[in-house]
Amino acid sequence: MDTFSGYTLCLPDLTKFQSCQRIERRPPLCIEIKPKCGFIPFSSHVTKEIKQRVCRYCMHQHLKVANGKWKRISKYCPLDLFSGNKQRMYFALKSLLQEAQNNLKIFKNGELIFGCKDDQDCLMDLNELANHLKAYFFPANGVVSGPQCTRTVIKELIHVISMALLSNPKAPTGAVKRNRDSEKRSYCEASHVPREALRNGIHSLENSDLPRDSVLWRILQVQMLDMLDIDGVYPLYQRVQQHLETSPKDRIRLHLDGPYDEDFYESLSDLRSEDDGTVEYAARKIHQYRVAMTAKDCSIMIALSPYPVEEGHEPSNEIQTSRACFVFSVSILDLDPKPYENIAHQYNLDGKIINYYVQKTKTKMAATSPSFPIENEDCTLYFHSV
Ligand SMILES: O=P(O)(O)O[C@@H]1[C@@H](OP(=O)(O)O)[C@H](OP(=O)(O)O)[C@H](O)[C@H](OP(=O)(O)O)[C@H]1OP(=O)(O)O
Ligand SMILES: Nc1ncnc2c1ncn2[C@@H]1O[C@H](COP(=O)(O)OP(=O)(O)OP(=O)(O)O)[C@@H](O)[C@H]1O
């Protein structure tokens, strides 16, 4: 509900399956993922070299833990999830299950069974999650338990989530191959994926790249409307602010607070990046940045409704593994536009994230690097016969 305008938005409950399906004994599941930004900035305005190597999410983790927002650093890296590479996606989803923070929630029949209600109240027990889910993956034998059961259920769950994230509602039109440059931009040096898997990932073309029109592909396309990065957008914001001081009424003409109509939408498709020095150019780039920011903060809802393996279904909206069958739907949540004023906050936050990360990694490197002999210290090597 928007208390300023007096409007209320009435949305369907996305934790429940939307289309009318046959009644199943087992209730619907829903997985909510807030994936965050899935690429390394490619803008030439970026001056801090670290931003070209480590993604914002991984850097921000350190500041969040230092500020007490979360207790532990997550091994989740959005670039692994958005990679389209099965191994990296598996690792990303497993990391979310180990440290969900506000990036993963699981609902059963609309009720939260895994993830955080808020910063204090988190349900994070994987065995309990497996207990909730085993009826979906061991339908004939609900009594299995123990670590093996948990492992199998979690593996199956990750498999099902990956399939939903990579599914293409418009039938197969192929994956979008990355060129060498964008490939480099899709690796984060702070990722915890084992180096070996990364090396294989870079060279293996199969199981890599996002299928066109999959939910991850669509979100990534919108995120990449941020072509200048906050480093390039902030000076444009200052240009607009300066202009508004003398012409405050232009705030409406420049659509800074909406309306989000055809004109606004059209301004998103003009991707020219030659700055002609006008306030119109600045406003257009700010619109694109704000829409990208919205896509960097949205959530994906995957609703799953189980059905018996032997029953046929539209293959386009079903997920079938060796152990389970689901019909599924994928929606995107939390698409309210980021306010124009947010840009100043983003700029300051970006600086804090980077400074803290650089300082933290420097201290860590100093503590782990080998100590060199101090001046005048005896460094004679003695060889003993063996
Ligand atoms: O800046 P970030 O990346 O920390 O994102 C904020 C989110 O923090 P997160 O990193 O996901 O824990 C933050 O999430 P929480 O409220 O902390 O769960 C909000 O979504 C915030 O958006 P808004 O200002 O409420 O519209 C988000 O702010 P925006 O950057 O999208 O404006
Ligand atoms: N249509 C919906 N169906 C099911 N659950 C929903 C729906 N809308 C929101 N939720 C749940 O409520 C949570 C908060 O929603 P949302 O982020 O839109 O609210 P908000 O007030 O904008 O919160 P924030 O400022 O933290 O983003 C979501 O993470 C999701 O779990």
UniProtKB/TrEMBL annotation:
InterPro entries: Ins_P5_2-kin. It is an enzyme of class 2 (transferase). One of its GO terms (biological process) is inositol phosphate biosynthetic process. GO terms for cellular component: nucleus. It catalyses: 1D-myo-inositol 1,3,4,5,6-pentakisphosphate + ATP = 1D-myo-inositol hexakisphosphate + ADP + H(+). Keywords: ATP-binding, Kinase, Nucleotide-binding, Transferase. It holds the Pfam family Ins_P5_2-kin. One of its GO terms (molecular function) is inositol-1,3,4,5,6-pentakisphosphate 2-kinase activity. The keyword Transferase applies. Its EC number is 2.7.1.158. It comes from the Eukaryota. The EXKPK motif is conserved in inositol-pentakisphosphate 2-kinases of both family 1 and 2. Phosphorylates Ins(1,3,4,5,6)P5 at position 2 to form Ins(1,2,3,4,5,6)P6 (InsP6 or phytate). This is Inositol-pentakisphosphate 2-kinase. It comes from Callorhinchus milii (Ghost shark).
